[in-house]
């Protein structure tokens, strides 16, 4: 059986099943679990051609539904590069995110050679986030790029950026370690001229010196974490989700309305409640999870 397609599969399945004994067993099975067991026990599942056909169909179905393609991913990344050159960082970030989402990647395979597009997209995201002063997020993207096999020839640039992020976050000791790794990676960058290598080496060594002898401004820790929403000073025992400072009033002209029964400080939180439903704004639909609201990647 050189060519095995679904028609052949159905013929063999029909041959195995269409006998009185098999059908009676299936009909008399006391539970669905036993019926499934009978189906799994068919001899056809041990046929190598059947297994090969099913595997091919599953892989094809996955590719059709997931939309994963290195070519598409590269196209998004190149579009992002053009926007990045024009310093349109937010728009570039959207393109790089699409590049991450469309890059093919077999995470079950320890070999990272098939993840170059994914790693490059993460690297580009890190550069964009760095320019947007999102240093902690940029640091995470650097680690993602490295874990997915970022090209060794350009690894020094990624490590240098990671070191810069750590410096901006006030983590000088970790920055020193990473920048030294960048120097080692620079030695392995065989595609660079000697003059270019010396220039980059001098640049990284200058950063290392700044880590060892930071100025006052360079030693200032930059926090990019969003502030935690404040809580109500005191919750009302009459109005759900409202501050105790508020009271409910009613008259025929205005209907129901809230007033301040107690002194209210400037900027004080007066109402806080969990939303009944959440939907992403259009500008975040390609970058954030529609379920959790967290940033993708």
TrEMBL record:
Region annotation (Disordered) ranges: 216-236
Compositional bias segments (type: Basic and acidic residues): 227-236
Gene3D superfamilies linked to this entry: Tetratricopeptide repeat domain (1.25.40.10)
Recorded GO MF terms: histone deacetylase binding; methyltransferase activity
Keyword vocabulary terms for this entry: Methyltransferase, S-adenosyl-L-methionine, Transferase
Cellular component, GO, one term: nucleus
GO BP terms in the entry: methylation
Stated name of the protein: SET and MYND domain-containing protein 4-like
Species name: Acanthaster planci
Lineage, highest ranks first: Eukaryota, Metazoa, Echinodermata, Eleutherozoa, Asterozoa
Gene behind this protein: LOC110976946
């Amino acid at each position: 059986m050189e060519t095995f397609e679904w028609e052949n599969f159905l013929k063999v399945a029909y041959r195995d099943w269409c006998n009185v004994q098999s059908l009676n067993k299936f009909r008399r099975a006391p539970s669905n679990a036993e019926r499934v067991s009978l189906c799994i026990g068919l001899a056809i599942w041990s046929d190598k051609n059947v297994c090969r056909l099913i595997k091919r169909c599953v892989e094809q179905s996955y590719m059709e539904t997931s939309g994963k393609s290195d070519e598409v991913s590269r196209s998004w990344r190149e579009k992002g590069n053009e926007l990045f050159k024009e310093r349109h960082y937010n728009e570039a970030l959207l393109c790089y995110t699409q590049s991450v989402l469309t890059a093919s990647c077999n995470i079950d395979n320890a070999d990272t050679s098939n993840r170059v597009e994914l790693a490059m997209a993460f690297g580009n995201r890190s550069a964009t986030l760095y320019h947007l002063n999102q240093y902690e997020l940029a640091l995470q993207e650097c680690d993602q790029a490295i874990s997915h096999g970022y090209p060794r020839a350009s690894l020094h640039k990624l490590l240098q950026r990671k070191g810069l992020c750590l410096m901006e976050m006030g983590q000088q000791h970790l920055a020193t370690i990473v920048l030294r790794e960048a120097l080692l990676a620079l030695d392995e960058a065989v595609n660079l001229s000697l003059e270019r290598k010396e220039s980059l080496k001098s640049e990284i060594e200058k950063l290392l010196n700044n880590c060892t002898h930071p100025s006052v401004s360079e030693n200032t820790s930059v926090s990019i974490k969003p502030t935690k929403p404040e809580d109500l000073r005191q919750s009302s025992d009459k109005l759900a989700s409202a501050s105790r400072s508020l009271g409910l009033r009613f008259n025929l002209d205005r209907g129901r309305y809230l007033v301040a029964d107690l002194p209210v400080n400037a900027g004080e939180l007066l109402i806080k409640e969990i939303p009944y439903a959440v939907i992403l704004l259009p500008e975040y639909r390609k970058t954030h999870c529609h379920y959790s609201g967290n940033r993708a990647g």
